[in-house]
Design goal:
14 strands; 9 helices; five-stranded mixed sheet; 3 domains; seven-stranded antiparallel sheet; Helix Hairpins; Heat Shock Protein 90; rod-shaped; single chain; alpha+beta; 477 residues
Protein backbone atom coordinates (compact mmCIF):
# COMPACT_ATOMS: atom_id res chain seq x y z
CA UNK A 1 0.00 0.00 0.00
CA UNK A 2 2.09 2.86 -1.36
CA UNK A 3 -0.45 5.66 -1.06
CA UNK A 4 -0.21 7.84 2.02
CA UNK A 5 -3.93 8.50 1.76
CA UNK A 6 -4.70 4.78 1.77
CA UNK A 7 -2.39 4.15 4.73
CA UNK A 8 -3.91 7.05 6.66
CA UNK A 9 -7.46 5.89 5.92
CA UNK A 10 -6.62 2.31 6.88
CA UNK A 11 -4.85 3.40 10.06
CA UNK A 12 -7.72 5.66 11.12
CA UNK A 13 -10.25 2.91 10.36
CA UNK A 14 -8.33 0.34 12.38
CA UNK A 15 -7.95 2.72 15.34
CA UNK A 16 -11.65 3.65 15.29
CA UNK A 17 -12.64 -0.01 14.93
CA UNK A 18 -10.56 -0.96 17.96
CA UNK A 19 -11.92 1.98 19.94
CA UNK A 20 -15.51 1.17 19.05
CA UNK A 21 -14.99 -2.51 19.79
CA UNK A 22 -13.54 -1.68 23.21
CA UNK A 23 -16.31 0.83 23.95
CA UNK A 24 -19.00 -1.59 22.74
CA UNK A 25 -17.61 -4.40 24.85
CA UNK A 26 -17.57 -2.12 27.89
CA UNK A 27 -21.17 -1.06 27.25
CA UNK A 28 -22.31 -4.66 26.86
CA UNK A 29 -20.52 -5.69 30.05
CA UNK A 30 -22.03 -2.82 32.04
CA UNK A 31 -25.49 -3.46 30.59
CA UNK A 32 -25.26 -7.16 31.31
CA UNK A 33 -24.04 -6.52 34.86
CA UNK A 34 -26.90 -4.08 35.55
CA UNK A 35 -29.56 -6.41 34.16
CA UNK A 36 -28.06 -9.34 36.05
CA UNK A 37 -28.14 -7.31 39.27
CA UNK A 38 -31.79 -6.48 38.63
CA UNK A 39 -32.58 -10.17 38.10
CA UNK A 40 -30.71 -10.99 41.30
CA UNK A 41 -32.77 -8.39 43.19
CA UNK A 42 -35.99 -9.93 41.89
CA UNK A 43 -34.78 -13.40 42.91
CA UNK A 44 -33.88 -12.12 46.38
CA UNK A 45 -37.35 -10.59 46.84
CA UNK A 46 -39.02 -13.87 45.82
CA UNK A 47 -36.70 -15.87 48.12
CA UNK A 48 -37.38 -13.60 51.12
CA UNK A 49 -41.15 -13.82 50.57
CA UNK A 50 -41.02 -17.61 50.75
CA UNK A 51 -38.55 -17.50 53.67
CA UNK A 52 -40.91 -15.20 55.55
CA UNK A 53 -43.72 -17.70 55.18
CA UNK A 54 -41.49 -20.49 56.49
CA UNK A 55 -40.51 -18.36 59.47
CA UNK A 56 -44.18 -17.93 60.29
CA UNK A 57 -44.62 -21.70 60.29
CA UNK A 58 -46.61 -22.06 57.09
CA UNK A 59 -46.59 -25.72 56.06
CA UNK A 60 -44.54 -26.68 53.02
CA UNK A 61 -47.61 -27.63 50.98
CA UNK A 62 -49.35 -24.38 51.92
CA UNK A 63 -46.56 -22.05 50.83
CA UNK A 64 -47.83 -19.28 48.58
CA UNK A 65 -45.61 -19.34 45.48
CA UNK A 66 -48.15 -17.88 43.05
CA UNK A 67 -45.47 -16.35 40.77
CA UNK A 68 -43.57 -19.60 40.35
CA UNK A 69 -43.79 -19.32 36.59
CA UNK A 70 -41.55 -16.24 36.73
CA UNK A 71 -39.54 -17.23 39.81
CA UNK A 72 -38.88 -20.95 40.30
CA UNK A 73 -38.40 -21.81 44.00
CA UNK A 74 -36.70 -24.73 45.72
CA UNK A 75 -36.58 -25.23 49.53
CA UNK A 76 -33.99 -27.49 51.15
CA UNK A 77 -33.36 -28.44 54.77
CA UNK A 78 -30.15 -28.63 56.74
CA UNK A 79 -29.26 -31.99 55.19
CA UNK A 80 -29.80 -30.75 51.64
CA UNK A 81 -33.06 -32.64 51.16
CA UNK A 82 -35.68 -30.94 49.02
CA UNK A 83 -38.77 -30.22 51.12
CA UNK A 84 -40.70 -27.94 48.76
CA UNK A 85 -40.62 -26.68 45.17
CA UNK A 86 -42.73 -24.30 43.13
CA UNK A 87 -45.46 -25.58 40.86
CA UNK A 88 -44.51 -27.24 37.56
CA UNK A 89 -40.77 -27.10 38.34
CA UNK A 90 -39.38 -30.03 36.35
CA UNK A 91 -35.60 -29.51 36.57
CA UNK A 92 -33.17 -27.15 38.27
CA UNK A 93 -29.40 -26.60 38.43
CA UNK A 94 -27.13 -24.12 40.15
CA UNK A 95 -28.67 -24.43 43.62
CA UNK A 96 -26.50 -27.21 44.99
CA UNK A 97 -29.04 -29.99 44.39
CA UNK A 98 -31.00 -30.92 41.33
CA UNK A 99 -33.98 -32.43 43.12
CA UNK A 100 -37.45 -31.17 42.22
CA UNK A 101 -39.59 -33.60 44.28
CA UNK A 102 -40.07 -33.19 48.04
CA UNK A 103 -38.37 -36.04 49.92
CA UNK A 104 -40.50 -35.86 53.06
CA UNK A 105 -44.18 -35.29 53.73
CA UNK A 106 -45.28 -31.79 54.66
CA UNK A 107 -44.79 -31.02 58.31
CA UNK A 108 -47.51 -28.71 59.58
CA UNK A 109 -46.43 -26.17 62.10
CA UNK A 110 -49.63 -26.60 64.18
CA UNK A 111 -52.26 -29.38 64.81
CA UNK A 112 -56.02 -29.39 64.18
CA UNK A 113 -58.79 -31.01 62.21
CA UNK A 114 -59.13 -28.31 59.55
CA UNK A 115 -57.47 -25.23 58.21
CA UNK A 116 -59.38 -22.86 60.42
CA UNK A 117 -58.32 -24.67 63.58
CA UNK A 118 -54.67 -24.70 62.41
CA UNK A 119 -54.80 -21.02 61.73
CA UNK A 120 -56.30 -20.35 65.11
CA UNK A 121 -53.66 -22.48 66.83
CA UNK A 122 -50.89 -20.79 64.89
CA UNK A 123 -52.22 -17.42 65.88
CA UNK A 124 -52.33 -18.47 69.46
CA UNK A 125 -48.80 -19.86 69.39
CA UNK A 126 -46.40 -17.03 70.08
CA UNK A 127 -43.38 -18.98 68.74
CA UNK A 128 -41.96 -17.55 65.53
CA UNK A 129 -39.00 -18.37 63.33
CA UNK A 130 -36.70 -15.82 61.67
CA UNK A 131 -35.29 -14.89 58.26
CA UNK A 132 -31.55 -14.32 57.87
CA UNK A 133 -30.65 -10.69 57.32
CA UNK A 134 -27.30 -11.54 55.74
CA UNK A 135 -26.77 -10.81 52.06
CA UNK A 136 -27.96 -13.74 49.98
CA UNK A 137 -25.69 -15.94 47.94
CA UNK A 138 -26.14 -15.52 44.19
CA UNK A 139 -25.51 -18.24 41.63
CA UNK A 140 -26.24 -18.87 37.99
CA UNK A 141 -28.15 -21.92 36.86
CA UNK A 142 -31.10 -23.19 34.84
CA UNK A 143 -34.71 -24.08 35.60
CA UNK A 144 -37.27 -26.00 33.56
CA UNK A 145 -40.85 -24.99 34.28
CA UNK A 146 -43.68 -26.71 32.44
CA UNK A 147 -41.31 -27.79 29.70
CA UNK A 148 -39.64 -24.39 29.21
CA UNK A 149 -35.96 -24.29 30.09
CA UNK A 150 -34.38 -20.92 30.92
CA UNK A 151 -31.20 -19.52 32.43
CA UNK A 152 -31.77 -18.05 35.87
CA UNK A 153 -30.09 -15.96 38.53
CA UNK A 154 -30.63 -17.70 41.89
CA UNK A 155 -30.68 -16.05 45.32
CA UNK A 156 -30.30 -18.26 48.42
CA UNK A 157 -31.86 -17.04 51.71
CA UNK A 158 -31.85 -18.96 54.99
CA UNK A 159 -34.90 -19.09 57.30
CA UNK A 160 -35.59 -20.77 60.65
CA UNK A 161 -39.12 -22.10 61.24
CA UNK A 162 -40.82 -22.09 64.67
CA UNK A 163 -39.61 -25.67 65.21
CA UNK A 164 -36.00 -24.49 65.00
CA UNK A 165 -35.29 -26.15 61.66
CA UNK A 166 -33.03 -24.13 59.35
CA UNK A 167 -34.21 -24.11 55.77
CA UNK A 168 -32.67 -22.61 52.63
CA UNK A 169 -34.85 -21.01 50.00
CA UNK A 170 -33.46 -20.93 46.46
CA UNK A 171 -35.46 -18.53 44.27
CA UNK A 172 -34.58 -17.77 40.69
CA UNK A 173 -35.23 -14.94 38.25
CA UNK A 174 -35.08 -15.72 34.50
CA UNK A 175 -32.30 -14.04 32.52
CA UNK A 176 -34.15 -14.15 29.22
CA UNK A 177 -34.89 -10.43 29.31
CA UNK A 178 -31.27 -9.62 30.04
CA UNK A 179 -30.12 -11.86 27.23
CA UNK A 180 -32.58 -10.31 24.78
CA UNK A 181 -31.50 -6.77 25.73
CA UNK A 182 -27.81 -7.59 25.40
CA UNK A 183 -28.42 -9.36 22.10
CA UNK A 184 -30.38 -6.37 20.77
CA UNK A 185 -27.67 -3.89 21.73
CA UNK A 186 -24.95 -6.15 20.33
CA UNK A 187 -26.85 -6.55 17.07
CA UNK A 188 -27.32 -2.80 16.75
CA UNK A 189 -23.62 -2.22 17.35
CA UNK A 190 -22.59 -4.85 14.82
CA UNK A 191 -24.98 -3.42 12.26
CA UNK A 192 -23.79 0.15 12.79
CA UNK A 193 -20.07 -0.60 13.01
CA UNK A 194 -19.47 -1.12 9.24
CA UNK A 195 -21.32 2.10 8.47
CA UNK A 196 -19.26 4.07 10.98
CA UNK A 197 -16.02 2.56 9.68
CA UNK A 198 -16.94 3.38 6.08
CA UNK A 199 -17.67 6.96 7.08
CA UNK A 200 -14.37 7.23 8.98
CA UNK A 201 -12.40 5.74 6.07
CA UNK A 202 -14.07 8.04 3.54
CA UNK A 203 -13.64 11.19 5.60
CA UNK A 204 -10.01 10.33 6.36
CA UNK A 205 -9.35 9.68 2.67
CA UNK A 206 -10.86 13.01 1.61
CA UNK A 207 -9.20 15.03 4.37
CA UNK A 208 -5.81 13.42 3.72
CA UNK A 209 -6.10 13.96 -0.02
CA UNK A 210 -6.90 17.61 0.51
CA UNK A 211 -4.09 18.01 3.04
CA UNK A 212 -1.55 16.34 0.75
CA UNK A 213 -2.58 18.19 -2.40
CA UNK A 214 0.12 20.88 -1.85
CA UNK A 215 2.70 18.10 -1.40
CA UNK A 216 1.84 16.75 -4.82
CA UNK A 217 2.28 20.26 -6.23
CA UNK A 218 5.70 20.48 -4.58
CA UNK A 219 6.64 17.08 -5.99
CA UNK A 220 5.62 18.00 -9.53
CA UNK A 221 7.54 21.26 -9.39
CA UNK A 222 10.64 19.55 -8.01
CA UNK A 223 10.42 16.97 -10.81
CA UNK A 224 10.19 19.81 -13.35
CA UNK A 225 13.18 21.57 -11.77
CA UNK A 226 15.19 18.35 -11.89
CA UNK A 227 14.28 17.78 -15.53
CA UNK A 228 14.99 21.37 -16.62
CA UNK A 229 17.99 21.95 -14.30
CA UNK A 230 16.59 25.45 -13.77
CA UNK A 231 17.40 26.23 -10.17
CA UNK A 232 15.77 29.65 -10.38
CA UNK A 233 12.31 28.05 -10.18
CA UNK A 234 10.55 27.66 -6.83
CA UNK A 235 7.89 25.32 -5.50
CA UNK A 236 4.45 26.75 -4.64
CA UNK A 237 3.97 27.75 -1.02
CA UNK A 238 0.45 27.19 0.37
CA UNK A 239 -1.14 30.00 2.34
CA UNK A 240 -1.57 27.83 5.42
CA UNK A 241 0.80 27.90 8.37
CA UNK A 242 1.08 24.15 8.83
CA UNK A 243 3.90 21.66 8.33
CA UNK A 244 3.40 21.52 4.56
CA UNK A 245 3.80 25.28 4.26
CA UNK A 246 6.99 25.08 6.30
CA UNK A 247 8.17 22.23 4.08
CA UNK A 248 7.58 24.36 0.97
CA UNK A 249 9.46 27.31 2.48
CA UNK A 250 12.34 25.09 3.53
CA UNK A 251 12.43 23.56 0.04
CA UNK A 252 12.61 27.00 -1.55
CA UNK A 253 15.34 28.03 0.87
CA UNK A 254 17.24 24.88 -0.07
CA UNK A 255 16.79 25.67 -3.77
CA UNK A 256 18.04 29.22 -3.15
CA UNK A 257 21.12 27.93 -1.33
CA UNK A 258 21.69 25.33 -4.04
CA UNK A 259 21.37 27.93 -6.78
CA UNK A 260 23.85 30.19 -5.01
CA UNK A 261 26.21 27.26 -4.48
CA UNK A 262 26.06 26.23 -8.11
CA UNK A 263 26.59 29.83 -9.17
CA UNK A 264 29.60 30.10 -6.89
CA UNK A 265 30.92 26.85 -8.28
CA UNK A 266 30.55 28.06 -11.84
CA UNK A 267 32.17 31.37 -11.03
CA UNK A 268 34.93 29.56 -9.15
CA UNK A 269 35.64 27.29 -12.10
CA UNK A 270 35.64 30.22 -14.51
CA UNK A 271 37.93 32.30 -12.30
CA UNK A 272 40.22 29.35 -11.63
CA UNK A 273 40.47 28.65 -15.36
CA UNK A 274 41.29 32.31 -15.98
CA UNK A 275 43.93 32.39 -13.22
CA UNK A 276 45.53 29.16 -14.37
CA UNK A 277 45.60 30.23 -18.00
CA UNK A 278 47.98 33.17 -17.43
CA UNK A 279 50.89 31.34 -15.74
CA UNK A 280 50.45 28.33 -18.03
CA UNK A 281 50.51 30.56 -21.13
CA UNK A 282 53.55 32.45 -19.83
CA UNK A 283 55.38 29.22 -18.97
CA UNK A 284 54.54 27.70 -22.35
CA UNK A 285 55.80 30.79 -24.16
CA UNK A 286 59.09 30.73 -22.28
CA UNK A 287 59.57 27.02 -22.92
CA UNK A 288 58.78 27.40 -26.63
CA UNK A 289 61.26 30.27 -26.90
CA UNK A 290 63.84 28.21 -25.01
CA UNK A 291 63.25 25.24 -27.30
CA UNK A 292 63.76 27.37 -30.41
CA UNK A 293 66.52 29.60 -28.99
CA UNK A 294 68.14 28.00 -25.93
CA UNK A 295 70.14 31.10 -25.29
CA UNK A 296 67.03 33.16 -24.79
CA UNK A 297 65.44 30.82 -22.18
CA UNK A 298 64.39 32.79 -19.08
CA UNK A 299 64.95 30.13 -16.47
CA UNK A 300 64.21 32.49 -13.59
CA UNK A 301 60.91 33.55 -15.12
CA UNK A 302 59.96 29.95 -15.85
CA UNK A 303 60.68 28.95 -12.28
CA UNK A 304 58.65 31.93 -10.98
CA UNK A 305 55.68 30.99 -13.16
CA UNK A 306 55.98 27.38 -12.04
CA UNK A 307 56.04 28.43 -8.39
CA UNK A 308 53.03 30.69 -8.97
CA UNK A 309 51.20 27.89 -10.73
CA UNK A 310 52.07 25.48 -7.92
CA UNK A 311 50.82 27.92 -5.24
CA UNK A 312 47.59 28.51 -7.15
CA UNK A 313 47.00 24.77 -7.52
CA UNK A 314 47.61 24.32 -3.78
CA UNK A 315 45.11 27.09 -2.99
CA UNK A 316 42.50 25.53 -5.27
CA UNK A 317 43.06 22.12 -3.71
CA UNK A 318 42.66 23.51 -0.19
CA UNK A 319 39.47 25.33 -1.15
CA UNK A 320 38.10 22.13 -2.67
CA UNK A 321 38.81 20.25 0.56
CA UNK A 322 37.16 22.99 2.62
CA UNK A 323 34.11 23.02 0.36
CA UNK A 324 33.89 19.24 0.70
CA UNK A 325 33.44 19.69 4.46
CA UNK A 326 36.90 18.63 5.62
CA UNK A 327 37.05 19.03 9.37
CA UNK A 328 40.09 20.58 11.04
CA UNK A 329 42.28 18.55 13.32
CA UNK A 330 41.98 18.59 17.09
CA UNK A 331 45.62 19.16 18.03
CA UNK A 332 46.42 21.48 20.94
CA UNK A 333 48.34 24.52 19.65
CA UNK A 334 49.98 27.49 21.34
CA UNK A 335 49.31 30.44 19.05
CA UNK A 336 52.11 32.58 20.46
CA UNK A 337 54.70 29.94 19.64
CA UNK A 338 53.12 29.33 16.22
CA UNK A 339 53.29 33.06 15.39
CA UNK A 340 56.95 33.36 16.44
CA UNK A 341 57.87 30.23 14.47
CA UNK A 342 56.10 31.34 11.27
CA UNK A 343 57.57 34.85 11.39
CA UNK A 344 61.09 33.51 12.00
CA UNK A 345 60.87 31.50 8.76
CA UNK A 346 59.96 34.54 6.63
CA UNK A 347 63.51 35.61 5.82
CA UNK A 348 62.74 37.07 2.39
CA UNK A 349 60.06 39.58 3.42
CA UNK A 350 60.28 43.07 1.98
CA UNK A 351 59.40 44.59 5.35
CA UNK A 352 60.49 43.06 8.69
CA UNK A 353 57.63 41.86 10.87
CA UNK A 354 57.33 43.03 14.46
CA UNK A 355 56.03 40.32 16.80
CA UNK A 356 54.25 40.90 20.13
CA UNK A 357 53.59 37.44 21.58
CA UNK A 358 54.45 36.90 25.25
CA UNK A 359 56.83 34.00 25.89
CA UNK A 360 54.75 32.97 28.93
CA UNK A 361 52.22 31.35 26.62
CA UNK A 362 48.66 30.67 27.70
CA UNK A 363 47.23 31.08 24.17
CA UNK A 364 46.17 27.48 23.56
CA UNK A 365 43.64 26.62 20.86
CA UNK A 366 42.68 23.39 19.11
CA UNK A 367 42.78 22.80 15.37
CA UNK A 368 44.98 22.01 12.41
CA UNK A 369 48.49 23.40 12.70
CA UNK A 370 49.01 23.42 8.95
CA UNK A 371 45.77 25.27 8.23
CA UNK A 372 46.25 27.86 10.97
CA UNK A 373 49.81 28.41 9.80
CA UNK A 374 48.39 28.90 6.31
CA UNK A 375 45.99 31.55 7.63
CA UNK A 376 48.80 33.41 9.37
CA UNK A 377 50.97 33.21 6.25
CA UNK A 378 48.19 34.54 4.02
CA UNK A 379 47.54 37.46 6.39
CA UNK A 380 51.27 38.30 6.49
CA UNK A 381 51.55 38.02 2.67
CA UNK A 382 48.62 40.41 2.30
CA UNK A 383 50.19 42.85 4.76
CA UNK A 384 53.57 42.68 2.98
CA UNK A 385 51.97 43.52 -0.38
CA UNK A 386 50.17 46.62 0.93
CA UNK A 387 52.42 47.96 3.73
CA UNK A 388 54.61 51.01 3.22
CA UNK A 389 57.09 50.38 5.97
CA UNK A 390 55.67 48.47 8.94
CA UNK A 391 53.99 45.10 9.56
CA UNK A 392 53.16 43.93 13.09
CA UNK A 393 51.68 40.80 14.65
CA UNK A 394 50.22 40.74 18.18
CA UNK A 395 48.70 37.90 20.21
CA UNK A 396 46.33 38.55 23.11
CA UNK A 397 43.32 37.12 24.93
CA UNK A 398 39.83 38.47 24.31
CA UNK A 399 36.25 37.31 24.93
CA UNK A 400 37.00 33.73 25.96
CA UNK A 401 39.38 33.20 23.08
CA UNK A 402 42.71 34.16 21.54
CA UNK A 403 43.14 36.98 19.02
CA UNK A 404 45.94 37.27 16.48
CA UNK A 405 46.15 40.75 14.94
CA UNK A 406 48.11 41.54 11.79
CA UNK A 407 48.44 45.26 11.03
CA UNK A 408 50.14 47.21 8.28
CA UNK A 409 50.60 50.90 7.44
CA UNK A 410 49.35 50.65 3.87
CA UNK A 411 46.42 52.39 2.25
CA UNK A 412 43.91 50.33 4.24
CA UNK A 413 40.66 48.78 3.04
CA UNK A 414 37.66 51.00 2.23
CA UNK A 415 34.81 50.28 4.61
CA UNK A 416 32.46 49.38 1.77
CA UNK A 417 34.90 46.71 0.55
CA UNK A 418 35.75 45.08 3.89
CA UNK A 419 33.50 42.08 3.36
CA UNK A 420 34.04 41.80 -0.36
CA UNK A 421 37.77 41.17 -0.02
CA UNK A 422 37.01 37.82 1.61
CA UNK A 423 35.30 36.59 -1.54
CA UNK A 424 37.23 34.31 -3.87
CA UNK A 425 39.26 35.86 -6.71
CA UNK A 426 38.47 39.38 -5.53
CA UNK A 427 41.33 41.92 -5.87
CA UNK A 428 40.93 45.56 -5.13
CA UNK A 429 44.10 46.36 -7.10
CA UNK A 430 44.13 43.89 -10.00
CA UNK A 431 47.22 45.19 -11.76
CA UNK A 432 49.51 45.15 -8.71
CA UNK A 433 48.31 41.89 -7.16
CA UNK A 434 48.46 40.07 -10.48
CA UNK A 435 52.02 41.22 -11.06
CA UNK A 436 52.98 40.10 -7.58
CA UNK A 437 51.37 36.68 -7.98
CA UNK A 438 48.19 37.23 -5.97
CA UNK A 439 45.12 35.38 -7.24
CA UNK A 440 42.61 36.75 -4.74
CA UNK A 441 42.33 33.49 -2.80
CA UNK A 442 44.44 34.11 0.29
CA UNK A 443 41.87 36.02 2.37
CA UNK A 444 39.03 33.75 1.23
CA UNK A 445 41.01 30.72 2.39
CA UNK A 446 41.88 32.46 5.67
CA UNK A 447 38.23 33.19 6.51
CA UNK A 448 37.04 29.68 5.54
CA UNK A 449 39.66 28.09 7.77
CA UNK A 450 38.81 30.45 10.65
CA UNK A 451 35.10 29.67 10.42
CA UNK A 452 35.72 25.91 10.32
CA UNK A 453 37.79 26.29 13.50
CA UNK A 454 34.84 28.00 15.20
CA UNK A 455 36.47 31.40 14.93
CA UNK A 456 36.13 34.74 13.14
CA UNK A 457 38.26 36.82 10.78
CA UNK A 458 37.53 40.52 10.43
CA UNK A 459 39.22 43.59 9.02
CA UNK A 460 39.18 47.15 10.33
CA UNK A 461 41.17 50.32 10.06
CA UNK A 462 44.50 50.68 11.87
CA UNK A 463 44.53 54.24 13.08
CA UNK A 464 44.88 56.96 10.45
CA UNK A 465 46.12 54.57 7.77
CA UNK A 466 46.64 50.90 7.26
CA UNK A 467 44.52 47.80 7.91
CA UNK A 468 44.10 45.53 10.90
CA UNK A 469 43.10 41.89 10.38
CA UNK A 470 41.93 40.18 13.59
CA UNK A 471 41.71 36.38 13.79
CA UNK A 472 39.69 35.21 16.82
CA UNK A 473 39.75 31.52 17.86
CA UNK A 474 38.02 29.95 20.87
CA UNK A 475 40.22 29.08 23.81
CA UNK A 476 41.06 25.40 24.10
CA UNK A 477 40.08 25.51 27.78
Amino acid sequence: MRSVRARAALGATVVVALALAAAGLAVLLVLRANLTDQAGLQAEVAARETAGQLALGVPYDKLDMSDEEDHPVQVTDEDGRVVAVSKDLEAISGTGTGGVAPQRPPAPAATGDDDEERDDDASADPARGEVSTDDPDFTHGTATVDGDRADCRFASVEATNPAGLTLTVHAGAPLAGEQRAVASVRGAMLAGLPVVLLVVAGVTWLVTRRALRPVEGIRREMAAITASEDLSRRVPEPGSHDEIARLARTTNETLTALEASVERQRRFVADASHELRNPIASLRTQLEVGAAHPGLLDVTGAVADTVRLQALAADLLLLARLDAGERPGAALLELGALVREEVSQRTGDRIPVTVSAPEAGGFEVTGSRAQLARVLGNLLDNAERHAHGAVAVAVRREGGGVVVEVTDDGAGVPEAERERIFERFVRLDDARTRDEGGAGLGLAIARDVAVRHGGLLRVSGAGERGARFALWLPDAR
